[in-house]
Amino acid sequence: MARQGITFEQVAAAADALVGAGQQPTIRAVRERLGTGSPNTIHKHLTAWRQARPVAAAAHELPQALTAAIAAEIERAALQARAEIDGRLAQAQGEAAELAAAGEAIEAERDALAEQVAELTRERDTLAGKAEQQAAELEHLRAALADAQQGRTVAEQQAAVLVAKIEACAEAKAERDEARKAAAEAREQAARLAGQLEALRQQK
Predict the structure, then answer these.
(1) Mean pLDDT over each residue of the chain, to the nearest integer
(2) According to the model, what pLDDT value does residue 85 have?
(3) How far apart are CA 169 and CA 28, in angstroms?
(4) What angle (nearest 5°) sits at the alpha carbon of residue 81, between those of residues 13 and 61?
(5) Which parts of the chain are beta strand (E)?
(6) What is the pLDDT of residues 49-98, one digit of tens each?
(7) Distance (Å, rounded) from C-alpha 192 to C-alpha 185?
(8) What's the rounded Cα separation, in Å, for the pair 146 and 69?
(9) Angle, in degrees to the nearest 10, between helices 27-34 and 39-52
(10) From CA 28, how far away is CA 99, in angstroms rounded?
(11) Which whole-number Å values give the CA distances from 36 to 26, 48, 103, in the listed order?
């Protein structure tokens, strides 16, 4: 929602109050009294307020005897009006200087914000580059992990084959030992039978 700016009535009331208190209704004084407001907006409303103030007095018919006094009063009023105009001019110049200072401050703040944006843009680009590099490294690690897993599978298969061969060799060795044992027993039995046969021959 847009921020509601101050109105002419607020500025006029503040200016009237300052004049009533014997103070100059400057931009800064009005803004301090209101507690808010843009210097540009206050300056615009103050200008309209000054233009709306009555500056001329009604003329009156005067006796002939007061002609000299009228001339003197006119001269005094002219001098007073000139002094008031000079005062307003000085006040306007002061307000213009305040506006210029505010403009310079805004430009300095804008430049600082632009530099911050540029710095954040550089940091974003740097982080983007690092993110791309990390993504490439992650992909490389994933590929390496896949190769390692495949290698492990092959190694497991080869190990299973070797275990099977070792087990087969163990079974073959056991069978060989069993065969040797049976052959030894057969030889012993054959020897016994041969001895018995020889003994029977000698008895005949």
Answers:
(1) 82
(2) 83
(3) 105
(4) 100
(5) none
(6) 999 886 544 444 556 776 666 656 766 876 787 788 888 888 888 888 88
(7) 11
(8) 112
(9) 110
(10) 10
(11) 14, 19, 17
The pLDDT assigned to 58 comes to: 41
Name the residue with higher pLDDT: 176 or 73. 176
Distance CA(99)–CA(117), nearest Å, equals 26
Q: Which amino acid is at 29?
A: A
- How far is it, in rounded angstroms, from Cα 125 to Cα 182? 84
C-alpha span between 55 and 32 (Å, rounded)? 27
**CA distances for 101 relative to 53, 62, 104, 110, angstroms:** 28, 51, 5, 14
Give pTM, 2 decimals.
Answer: 0.31
Read off the pLDDT of residues 140-167 as tens digits, 9 standing for 90 and up.
878 877 887 887 888 788 878 877 887 8
